[in-house]
Structures
1.
Amino acid sequence: MEELIKECNLGTTIKSIVKITGGLSHRMYKVVTDKGTYAIKELNSGIMKKDTAYSNFLFAEKFTDLAKANGIPAIGTIKIGNDIMKKIDNKYYMIFEWIEGTILKSEDIEEKHSEIVGKLLAKIHNIDSSSIDDDNRKHINTKMYDWNEYISIVSEQNKPYFQLYKDNIDLLYDLNKKSKEAIEYANNNLVISHRDLDRKNIMWQGDNPYIIDWEASGYINPTLELIQVAWYWSGGDIEKIDYNKFEKVIKSYKENYNGYIDSNIDVLIHADIYSGLEWIDYNLRRSLCIGHDYDEEEVHLAENEVIQSINEIKYNVSQFNKMTEILKKVD
């Protein structure tokens, strides 16, 4: 960290380094120097081994800059020379200005927050992104996962999610098929967006939001992302959905979005499941150390994510009918 601070001209003396909890893929630190306060992200080494990792981060930062230029309260990386990250001893770091703010807990979300987020999402979708269009990224690849592939390893390693996973394999296969077909339909109408606009990625100073962590930025169907965001900002992620808040997101979005809302909600609502299935597969591999060795802390984190994600998907499916009804009726 000292070498990073020195090479990036962030100060001559480190006053404190505090590891921040909450990161699901990377490690984040609050670093105070004699020059300023920074949020420093140590990127996941497994992710950085992928051939497309750097280009994905670069594309995301281009969109972050574009969002800021369009009046979105976006927090992007501090550029190091002309680069978005720095490599020190085979580890990659991204540096951000430290923002004092609050990440809301689900129980602290009020209808005004849901309304603000709906408007923010609409403003992001209204951005003219033609200057960074990338045809190679437009097609969202989908696949059928081999969920049975993991069951014997899960059993051998006596994972805490074994029974839950085993009991729901048929459901995972069914949702995988339906969500894959829905994503292929959704690919007909795409915009560039944040794609991870949940509670952990918006910091609040009073009623003023600041959007962080743009690394998932890419192409997505705008109606699909609307469903995802309304879900998170109404308590769906903790299985306590508040349909007044859900409706607030939808209504605020529709009042501010310049495009059209796809009426084929019954199909698109299944597309919302696909990212959850991707996340389960990623965390299965991470918890089982398939393709990469992870430390005990990260393995434990991945195990919890598998459990939480399967339960969330089951709850999500149980709410489809009510969600679809609201999406179709809100003017």
Note: The radius of gyration is 20 Å.
2.
Amino acid sequence: MMRRVYTIIKGHVKTWFRSKSTIFWTIAFPILLIVLFGAIFGGGSTKFDLYVQNQDLAASTPTPASHGFVTALANTTAFNIRTVPAEMTNPLSYVRDDAQLHNRGQRLLVIPAGFQNNLTAGQALIQLYMDQSDQASASLSGIIYAVANTFATRYKGITVNIGVDQVPIVARNVRYIDFFIPGVIGMTLLTSGVFGAVNTNGRYRELKIIKKLATTPLSKVEWIMGMIGYQMFLSAISVAVILLFGRVFFNVTATIDIYTVAIVVAASLLFPGIGMVLANFVKDADGAEAAANAITFPMMFLAGTFWPRETMPDILKVVSSYLPLTYVNDGLRDAMIYLQPAQALTNTVIALGLAVGFVILGSVLMNWKEE
């Protein structure tokens, strides 16, 4: 009996060694998971971006009190301080533009002129503009209040309170599920596009269908565009199902307009294009699938699918800015949730440009006669 059991085990082990994708994911998947989550959450603390405009100047230089307060905020483990020029007459507009450009939180702290004199008199006041729908708002405002009054006490040597005037800067309440649904759409477009192209090309290559296409009038670009058209059809079904489910069960009120359609079309071009390029570099079907997993899996977690990229370490923010899925996710949220058509259009143009590049590259790399 033990001999037969050993034979079964031996047979499965040989099968395992023959499958490159199985070997890859058996070894690489847990390592990749640890690296990703360790890099994202292993820093021990999460810092949030805080824009600060210091208007309390003396000869164009921050007063000692205002400079000391900003330094006290920077010394905490809670904030990355982003300086807003003191001469900006509309700091909120500056913050909105910069925050949307770099995917940061819209939090602005204004230290008004006369802060040092008022602190000396015991009546200092600062203004905090914050998105009240942000789940971190309550705790972050509490940290600012604590730092302000601890600094005031140390500065004066007696107990002094600094008033924190909180001003909401968002008109629409965005829940996590509202943030999450566009990410699910982006992730679905990514996986269906990349894996659809890789699996179809791998299967057709094994059946020698692609090689036979070289004898037909069909061009490589036409073949690729036909594949992409099919993926667009699947994408439309997936997006409709996700939005309907989100609306019925979670009351997600996403806006569907021309910008939403444009970013979905761009993504439906982009991700199959990536899959077509990948299929040309990895000829083996199992290897191609493993390579597709290696590309899509990290992209899901680093491109802001499940949580805001703002909460990730700076190095990962830089990495995420080069990922195609980042522009799709941001574009979908700008169009569907945040109602920022200009930003949605910018992300759509970038995604569309990448899509055209990958489609052209895929057609250049494909050699039907060698398939």
Note: The longest strand covers residues 48-54.
3.
Amino acid sequence: MKTKIIKVFSLLGIISLISAAQENAIDYFGQTPPGDSAVVFAPGIISLPHRVEQSIVFSPDGKECFFNEWAANYSYAKIYYTKYENKIWTPPVEASFSVGHFASSPFFSADGKRLYFHYANYTGPEPYDIWMVQRTAQGWGEPFHLPSPINSDYKDGCYSETKDGIVYFASNRPGGFDNKGDIWRTHQITGQPLKVENLGATVNSSAWESGPCIAPDESYLIFVSERPGGFGHSDLYITFKKEDSSWTAPVNMEMSKAGINLKNAATDSATLSPDGRYLFFSRSGDIYWVSTKIIDDIKKEVFHTKIIK
């Protein structure tokens, strides 16, 4: 009898854990999760016809979502906001800090208390740089321009950071491999001012690089490049951090055969879901998503084929 009671309580415990997991699961606008082939995300809800969407991000708890709309001629950029309340997503509206400004490329901090993005005034003096808003009891605060050395007198944007606060971004500042754009990162030495460093020739090239998406544990980096040998006008590439902290030679993510980079298309704006299960990106005006299992598959292929240098 005692054994039966223990089994019953164990079963009840398992059911409780399953129920809690389901309760805490992120609702991706009711969409069927993708497999190893990229599909349009939330068609008719987020990805709308005759609109250009990019850069979707979810808060760490999965209850808030921000994404971009761009004008077809790039004359404006807006950040939209929607919240998961009473088991439904609210209709997307332009974020308060976006109204009247050129705002794009949102990124959540690991604790969900800060949101980073590109920002500029259509007619005002603000530089087109990386800005940030902090969460307050009343909502999101006023945009704050990040200081040097992350921002410079040149074009800086596409903020991404690890769970430990190491920042990756794109910039065309001096010290890179061209005047179009390279991937840079912060470099902190104890007791010294914050410094930034170019990721070097292994990652960057003489072509345009932008849109870094760093893994929370810094184990891999996805970025956009127009380097020769790609499939489209711009492609997503991935590089993995080795044990000595150097990077593997970047490979085109279409190595996965997932339908990420396609001929004559522009693929960019990679982001990760807060649960780490999905990769989002934009292509030809829509947002797509695919299982991050393809990243594990690419990693196995990269290390197996000894593309490491």
Note: Helices lie at 2-24, 293-304.
4.
Amino acid sequence: MKGPLFYSKILLFGEYGIIKDSKGLSIPYNFFKGALKVSEEPNEEALASNKSLKAFATYLTEIEDKNVVKFDLEAMQADIAAGMYFDSSIPQGYGVGSSGALVAAIYDKYAEDKITVLENLTREKLLRLKEIFGLMESFFHGNSSGLDPLNSYLSLPILINSKDNIEPTGIPSQSTEKNKGAVFLLDSGIIGETAPMVSIFMEKMKQEGFRNMLKNQFVKHTDACVEDFLKGDIKSLFSNIKQLSHVVLDNFKPMIPQQFHTLWKKGIETNEYYLKLCGSGGGGYILGFTQDFEKAKKALKDYPLEVVYNF
């Protein structure tokens, strides 16, 4: 058995903000992928994944009581007993949707009356999928918007206008000119945990000053970045990303690993690159934007960089 491939995702804009109804833009990232498999000679990773799927199957029996989704759990349990695991190159704790791809794969294989990618995806269907995926992925994160699995399942860029308004979208085609502007991933070398970061955020949300900053600065610049990116207005985009990078450095310090504070600040001061959180932060990948990738590469020569999109 070998299931279809599901890809990682990158939330370009909207981390934390989408909890408070900012816009967001999520794109599939085909560099990493995963599929359900059964192996005759499982290695340690496959055994660990199989064990995790066992616990996940138990959790899915509980969410069936909510009457949102039904699974063929007998088939799933039989496959797990036969040694099924999720074979994935998506790094865990890196903010690129490792649990999202797994959730998408399980829904695709075992959901009954599933909504398929081939049908006309109305807003109602997208929101229903998002709700189902949010419930399923909560097993891994304690709380999930359902966006990561949705992105992985559809393999399309998704524009989040607000919590209840999401749509597949087109993004400007990438530039073929070499070494101009780029969106890139910087590997922090640290594994991040989503749940503790979300707890810190929720704790901060109790402060009026933080809530005001979120609304008047963070959400404002995030929304502008999404609009600029979709319109292809690079000049305005970089002006807004610089502001956003500044707001994150000033207000989201716990989500930025300590050793990257100086590097973050240096980007804003030199304009060679701007950094922002990729997912919940706390480690994993950091997202970078630059108008000159060669310059950014030199400035960040101590870190592995991976290009996601060329301007």
Note: The CA atoms of residues 192 and 283 lie 4 Å apart.
